[in-house]
């Protein structure tokens, strides 16, 4: 009995010693590891100009800067919101050269010379854009975090329909899309409202569409 116990203890000690020596060999001392790491390279910057809300902005930023971060962190246009930062919620929607995009998924340097419109460029408290006024009238928001992206997207949706650009629910790809609730829901599906104000948003867009039809 004692012989088996001694053997088990010896085997356990041997395994522990082997594991410790293997770990020590695999993991170099901290100081040596730090010396082996290359220094962080300086960021690569680029100079470019973008027209934002009608104003020419001269930027010199890290080429990895997203359009969203350029707007919020460097130009202090904080109306455009950072939601998921993965292009899934639509809170960061802006209009670039007449088309809506998720500003978190594109680099600012890619838009040299482009015309960018943010929620601040659509209207202000003294002169609201019709879509902004309609969202207020129909209570198309609750917390309001997604609202700037919703409004920018809604403005672009009406332009898309006016241009005859079809969606996945358009019945006839060769005819002008109908201004229907189904069309609006499909086209606005990339903009998530966690408060659930979807029906009110559709009412607001429908009213503006009726004025401009």
UniProtKB/TrEMBL annotation:
It catalyses: an aldehyde + A + H2O = a carboxylate + AH2 + H(+). NCBIfam families: PRK11433.1. InterPro entries: 2Fe-2S-bd, 2Fe-2S-bd_dom_sf, 2Fe-2S_ferredoxin-like_sf, 2Fe-2S_ferredoxin-type, 2Fe2S_fd_BS, Aldehyde_Oxdr_Iron-Sulfur, Beta-grasp_dom_sf, TAT_signal. It is an enzyme of class 1 (oxidoreductase). It comes from Rugamonas rivuli. PROSITE patterns: 2FE2S_FER_1, 2FE2S_FER_2, TAT. Keywords: 2Fe-2S, Iron, Iron-sulfur, Metal-binding, Oxidoreductase, Periplasm, Signal. One of its GO terms (molecular function) is carboxylate reductase activity. Oxidizes aldehydes to the corresponding carboxylic acids with a preference for aromatic aldehydes. It might play a role in the detoxification of aldehydes to avoid cell damage. Its EC number is 1.2.99.6. It comes from the Bacteria. One of its GO terms (cellular component) is periplasmic space. Heterotrimer composed of PaoA, PaoB and PaoC. Residues 46-122 form the 2Fe-2S ferredoxin-type domain. It is found in: Periplasm. This is Aldehyde oxidoreductase iron-sulfur-binding subunit PaoA. The lineage of its organism: Bacteria, Pseudomonadati, Pseudomonadota, Betaproteobacteria, Burkholderiales. The gene is paoA.
């Amino acid at each position: 009995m004692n012989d088996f116990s001694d053997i088990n203890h010896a085997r356990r000690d041997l395994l522990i010693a082997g594991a410790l020596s293997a770990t020590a060999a695999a993991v170099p001392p901290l100081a040596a590891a730090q010396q082996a790491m290359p220094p962080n390279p300086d960021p690569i910057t680029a100079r470019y100009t973008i027209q934002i809300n009608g104003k020419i902005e001269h930027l010199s930023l890290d080429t990895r800067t997203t359009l969203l971060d350029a707007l919020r962190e460097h130009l202090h246009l904080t109306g455009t919101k950072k939601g998921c930062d993965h292009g899934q919620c639509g809170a960061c929607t802006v209009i670039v050269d007449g088309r809506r995009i998720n500003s978190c998924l594109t680099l600012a340097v890619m838009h040299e010379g482009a015309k960018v419109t943010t929620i601040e460029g659509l209207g202000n408290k003294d002169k609201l854009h019709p879509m902004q006024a309609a969202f207020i009238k129909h209570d198309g928001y609750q917390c309001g975090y997604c609202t700037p992206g919703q409004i920018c997207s809604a403005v672009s949706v009406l332009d898309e329909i006016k241009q005859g650009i079809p969606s996945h629910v358009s019945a006839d790809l060769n005819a002008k899309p109908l201004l229907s609730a189904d069309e609006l829901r499909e086209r606005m599906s990339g903009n998530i409202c966690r408060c659930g104000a979807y029906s009110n948003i559709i009412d607001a867009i429908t009213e503006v569409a009726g004025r401009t039809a």
